[in-house]
Design brief:
- By secondary structure, the chain is of the alpha/beta class.
- A hairpin with a 2-residue loop joins strand 9 and strand 10.
- The longest helix is centred in the first third of the chain and has 13 residues.
Length: about 220
Amino acid sequence: MRVLIGPDTADLAELYAAPRTPWFRVNMVHTVDGAATGDSGKSGSINNAVDKRVFDQLRDLADAIVVGAGTARIEGYRPADKPIVLLSRRAEVPERLRDAPPGMVLMATTSHAERIDDARDVLGGEHVLELGSYAVDLPMLKQLLADRGWVDVLSEGGPHLLRDLVASGAADELCVTIVPQLVGGEHPRILQGPPVDVPLQLHTLLEEDGTLLGRWFV
């Protein structure tokens, strides 16, 4: 474990480098009282400049970004400079991603998805991955992405996807930013769904202006 205090202790790219490949990490943010969103219902209402710097670094390191379609819709995802892989049991492509350049948005879904034909029309059949009958096989997704050469993969949630990633064993790492803020009220946590019992090993802890940024290996 390394505990590093302050913004200038080391280069972020080195600190967050994947120890091996393929490597699948998840990045989340929450307040001290455990809220994964603020009053807007978006994570953007609780993150800060420190979290944004690490967020940008993790995206820069990644070969591809994996995100739940619901999270992409709520957070207003747009096409990025890295491929975005959407997870959806319905195969519903969020409106702001429907005009992405070919191959920059993929859909991982199931053979029984009700919107799968529309997803194929929008994204192209070769970019719609059927990975199970009723639930997406996440270890299979990890392997398929590695087969494409995407060996450093970043997931940005949401909470239900994080739960499924750790429960299935597909996640290698959890990056969590804890912002020095209390919001109260009723908000989701960074992990939601049926109970899991997954031990974590703390690898790195950073602090800047009260914001804590940790890397936990699964």
